[in-house]
Write a sequence for this structure.
């Protein structure tokens, strides 16, 4: 896999953040709030449940990304840029 393709695939996974999702196995629903790319190739994300009737949040849980179904492509918040600026094929070196 080329570096460009690898970066594209990672960005596709990051695009899930902020969306309404569901774990296909347990049916757990909420918002995708964090993503992890680990050393062994496993990609997981945290589903944070919706607030209950008393407006209290439950704990989020980690799920393998292959188990995730996107319920709504509209985000609850925009994804931050994480300080990464795409400026073209090369950036000027910093002295």
């Amino acid at each position: 896999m080329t570096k460009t393709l690898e970066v594209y695939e990672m960005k596709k996974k990051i695009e899930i953040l902020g969306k309404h999702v569901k774990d296909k196995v347990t049916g757990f629903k909420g918002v995708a709030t964090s993503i992890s790319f680990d050393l062994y190739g496993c990609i997981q994300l945290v589903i944070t449940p919706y607030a209950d009737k008393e407006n209290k949040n439950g704990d989020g849980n980690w799920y393998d990304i292959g188990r995730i179904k996107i319920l709504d492509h509209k985000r609850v918040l925009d994804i931050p840029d994480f300080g990464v600026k795409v400026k073209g094929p090369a950036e000027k070196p910093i002295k």
Observations:
- The domain at 3-75 is CATH 2.30.30 (SH3 type barrels.).
- The chain has one domain: 3-75.
- The first strand starts at residue 19 and ends at 23.
